[in-house]
Specification:
The structure is a homodimer of 467-residue chains. With 467 residues, chain A is α+β, with helices and mostly antiparallel strands. Chain A contains 13 helices and 18 strands. In chain A, 34% of the residues lie in helices and 21% in strands. In chain A, a hairpin with an 8-residue loop joins β4 and β5. Chains A, B: It holds the Pfam family Peptidase_M20.
C-alpha cells in the first residue's frame, strides 16, 4: 500500500481543490429552481469518475435527477464493492446565518479543526465524503493496487428521500450486483472515539394543511367566531406528544423492535457527555422520551419532529388577519421494524380524527424509508473496523445514529446485501444547518482509511471462502 | 341641498376616476420598502383636498408617515366637524389569490354589487371611504352649501396602529379642536339594514419568538432529545384558549365591562343570520366562547387570534431540521374597560411563565388601542341616524363591530369629543384579504349621505343650544 499513500501525498492539494470546485455548484434537490445546477453537478461528478480511472462512466437519467455510475472490474472471482453517495445538497437557508456564501467554499480553522475545515453547503453531507471515495479509488487505480471490483453509484435525490433510485436499482439489478455496499454519509462519535455506524433510523415525512374559511379574514370582524387554522394546527401538533415524551398516534409503537439489554449496554459504551452535547448547540436543557437517555433518544427510539410551520402574516409589523390556511412539515424517525408507509397511514388517520369538523385537513406524504442495522459479525463491519483502527490507531466502536438514509434499507431489500456506513464527519459539522463544514483532517483521513477497507475486505472474504 | 346633489350627479364619473388613481398607489404602511409610495399617496390626498376647496391644506411630517390636513372654517359660531380617515393600506399578500393586481383597480359586477364594485387594496379600507368625504365636501363647498366648519385629518399609519398620531394630536390640540369627529372606516350590517357603528373593540398585537438551540439542527441527529421551538410554541398557543373558548391568561377578563341585558337585547335586534355568515366565508362550522352567539363573539367579547406563525423549513419538498427559532404574531381584541398596555403585560408574563426552562421567550409588543362606545343619546349619533334614514329610506340601527380603530379612543381622550362611525362598507368587502372591493353604489351613497349629516348635525346642535 506504500505506493497508494505516496500517490495520495503527492496529490493532496489537487484533491482538495477539485472538491472545492464541486462545492461551488448549488445542487439543491428540494427546490426545482436548481434543476440546471443538478445537471451541472452530475456532469462534474462524472468527469471526476473518469479522472479517477473508473470505466464505463455514465450519467443515467431517471424520472428525477440523474444518477452517476462508474466501475472498475478487475476479475470475476474478486469481491465487488458498490460505493453509494449523493451529490445533491440541502437548501442553504436561512442564508443570513451563514458567515460565507454557502456555495463559495472557504477554509477556516476552528477549535475542533486546527488544520482547517471547508465551510460550504454539502462539504460534509455528502460531496466531501463522496470525494474521499473518488480520490481513494484514484490512488488505488493509478497505482494498480485496487484489490476488489468496484462500482460507484452517486445519486442526486438523497435529500428529498431518493424517490427514483429504488425503481432504478430494481430495473438494473445486474448492473448493481455486489457483495457489499460502502457508504460515507455519517459521522464519527469523535476524532478520539472513531465509530462505524451500525444503525440508522427510518423516516416518514409529511406536510399538513389545515383550511378554515375560503379566504383570509379580518381578525377584528371574524375573530372569536370562526376556526383559526393556525390555532387548530398548533393544538393538533401539541397533542401529538404527551407529557412523558411519547408519541400519541395510536399504533405508533406497535412494531418497534426494543433493544436487548446487551445491545443497550453496548450502545452506552460510547462516552456520550450530555453537557458537551448541550453546549455544542447552545441549548439550556434537554428533553425527550421518559426512560431513555439522550444517546438512546437520538438513536434507538422513534421520534416525531416538527420541521416547519407557516400560515398567516409573517412579514414586518402587524397585520390583523385570520388566515384561510396553515401548514406544517412533520417528520418521524423510525426504528427497526417500523414500516414508513404504515406509520404515514396511522399519522394521516390520526390527524383527520383529531381535527375539529369545521376545518379541512390535507396531508401530503413525501418519500420515507425504513431503519437499518448492520450486525457486528458481518465481514463488511469487521473489515471496516480493522481499516479504521489501522487509520486512526484507536479502538473503533459500533455506533447507532439517529439520521436516516432511506435508500440503505431499500438497497438491502433489492440487492440482498448489507451496507457498511463508514462516515468521517463529526456531529459538529452543522449538516443541514448554516455554516456546514467538513474537517480537512477528516477528508484526508477518509482517503487514507478507504483503501484499507478494500484490502481487508478482500482478504477476509477470501479467508472465509477458503476457511 | 338640491344644488349639492346636482353637482354630485354632474361630477359622478370624475369622482370615481379620481379614486381609481389613488388606489394605484401601494401605500403599504406595514412594509418599510413602500415608504416612497406612502409619500406619493400623501401628496395625492393633499392635491385632492385642494381640489375639494379646502383651505390651509398641508402635509404634516411626523416621526413616521405624514398626516394630510385641510380645513374649511365658515364661522366661529358654527359647530366644527373633524373628519378622520387613513390613506395607508394593508399588505396585499397572498398575492396569488388576487384576481387582479391589487394596485391596478378594476370594476366588476358581483351578486351583491349589481352596479359594480371596485377591486383593489384599499378600495373599502379606507381610501374609497376617505374619498366619499372629499367628494361630499367638494359638492358642499363648490355649491356654497357647507353648514358647519370642517377639519380633515387623513393619516398614513392606521394599519400599523397609528404609532405617531397620538403625539401629533396632543401637540396640536388647538388645530384639531372640534365638536365631533366623523369617521368612515366601518361597514353597514347590510344594504337592507343600514347601521351606525356605536362600538369598536380595542387591540393588543404582539410577536412571540421562541429559541431553542443556537442554530438549526438535523432532525435525525438531534430529534427526540432537544426542545423543538415549533412544538413548544404550538403547545403554548394551544394552551391560550380553553375548551370553552375562554382565554386562559390570568387576569384577562378582570376589567371586562359586561353588557347590560338591555344593551345585549338591542344588539341582537340586528337580523344576523349564522348560515349566511358561514356561507359568505365558505366555512363548515362556527366556533367560539361558550354562552355567546356569533354576533356577540365578534363584537362585545374579547378574543385572542393567531395572525401568523412561522419557523423551520417552509419551502418546497422535505428538509429535516429542528429550527433554532419559531415565531407567532398574536393579537387580542379588547372590549370597553380593558387596557391594552395592561393586557400586553399580562400576556408577556403568562407566556414567560408557561414556557419550559430550556427555551428563551422574547415578546415584542406593537401599538394597541382601547375599545370605544358611542351612546345613542349623542347628537352625533342622532344626526347620523337621520342622515342615513334620509339617504337609505330605511330604519337605521346601532351596531357594535369587532374591528379596532385604536385612534378613536385616543382622540376621545385627548380632544374630549366623541366620534361618529359612519361607514358604508359591507362585511363581504374582503378588507385585509385578497380581492378587497368596494361597491360603487356604496361609494355614491356615502357621498349622498354625508352632506345630510352636516345639515342635521348643525341643526340639532343649534336646537340644543337654543332649547
Amino acid at each position: 500500500m506504500d505506493k497508494v499513500y505516496e500517490f495520495q501525498k503527492k496529490n493532496k492539494d489537487r484533491f482538495l481543490n477539485e472538491l472545492l470546485e464541486i462545492l461551488k455548484i448549488p445542487s439543491i434537490s428540494a427546490d426545482s429552481n436548481y434543476s440546471k445546477e443538478i445537471i451541472k453537478c452530475a456532469n462534474a461528478i462524472s468527469d471526476n469518475c473518469v479522472l479517477s480511472g473508473l470505466d464505463n462512466v455514465e450519467i443515467c437519467s431517471t424520472n428525477g435527477n440523474p444518477i452517476v455510475y462508474g466501475e472498475k472490474i478487475i476479475a470475476k472471482d474478486l469481491p465487488t464493492v458498490l460505493v453509494y453517495g449523493h451529490y445533491d445538497v440541502q437548501p442553504p437557508d436561512p442564508l443570513n446565518l451563514w458567515e460565507n456564501d454557502p456555495f463559495q467554499p472557504i477554509i477556516r480553522k476552528t477549535n475542533i479543526h486546527p488544520e482547517g475545515a471547508i465551510f460550504a453547503r454539502g462539504s460534509a453531507d455528502d460531496k466531501g465524503q463522496v470525494f474521499m471515495h473518488l480520490k481513494a479509488l484514484e490512488s488505488l487505480i493509478k497505482t494498480s493496487s485496487l484489490p476488489c471490483n468496484v462500482k460507484l453509484l452517486i445519486e442526486g435525490e438523497e435529500e428529498i428521500g431518493s424517490p427514483n433510485l429504488g425503481d432504478f436499482i430494481k430495473n438494473n439489478k445486474e448492473k448493481f450486483s455486489c457483495d457489499v455496499i460502502l457508504v460515507s454519509d455519517t459521522h464519527l462519535f469523535s476524532l478520539k472515539v472513531p465509530t462505524i455506524t451500525t444503525g440508522l433510523r427510518g423516516l416518514c415525512y409529511l406536510e399538513v394543511e389545515i383550511q378554515g374559511a375560503d379566504r383570509d379574514l379580518h381578525s377584528g370582524l371574524y375573530g372569536g367566531a370562526v376556526p383559526n387554522p393556525i390555532y387548530i394546527l398548533s393544538k393538533m401538533i401539541a397533542s401529538l406528544i404527551d407529557s412523558e415524551g411519547k408519541i400519541t398516534i395510536p399504533g405508533f409503537y406497535d412494531q418497534v423492535d426494543e433493544l436487548s439489554n446487551k445491545d443497550r449496554e453496548e450502545l452506552n459504551k460510547i462516552p456520550f457527555d450530555e453537557e458537551i452535547f448541550k453546549n455544542s448547540i447552545g441549548i439550556k436543557g434537554l428533553d425527550g422520551e421518559k426512560g431513555y437517555n439522550t444517546l438512546e433518544r437520538t438513536s434507538i427510539r422513534p421520534t416525531l419532529d416538527i420541521n416547519g410551520i407557516w400560515g398567516g402574516y409573517t412579514g414586518e409589523g402587524a397585520k390583523t388577519i385570520i388566515p384561510s390556511k396553515a401548514y406544517a412539515k412533520i417528520s418521524m424517525r423510525l426504528v427497526p421494524n417500523q414500516d414508513p408507509d404504515k406509520i404515514s397511514q396511522l399519522f394521516i388517520q390520526h390527524l383527520k380524527k383529531i381535527a375539529p369538523p369545521n376545518v379541512t385537513v390535507n396531508v401530503t406524504s413525501f418519500q420515507g424509508g425504513k431503519a437499518y442495522v448492520l450486525p457486528s459479525e458481518h465481514i463488511g463491519y469487521k473489515a471496516a473496523k480493522k481499516a479504521m483502527e489501522k487509520g486512526f490507531n484507536l479502538e473503533t466502536l459500533p455506533y447507532r445514529t439517529g439520521g436516516s438514509i432511506p435508500i440503505i434499507s431499500l438497497m438491502e431489500e433489492v440487492l440482498k446485501v448489507k451496507s457498511v456506513l463508514l462516515g468521517f464527519g463529526l456531529d459538529t459539522d452543522a449538516i443541514h444547518s448554516p455554516n456546514e463544514h467538513y474537517g480537512i483532517f477528516n477528508f484526508y483521513k477518509g482517503i487514507e482509511v478507504i483503501p484499507y477497507f478494500y484490502k481487508y475486505y478482500q482478504q477476509m472474504k477470501k479467508d472465509k471462502s477458503h476457511g
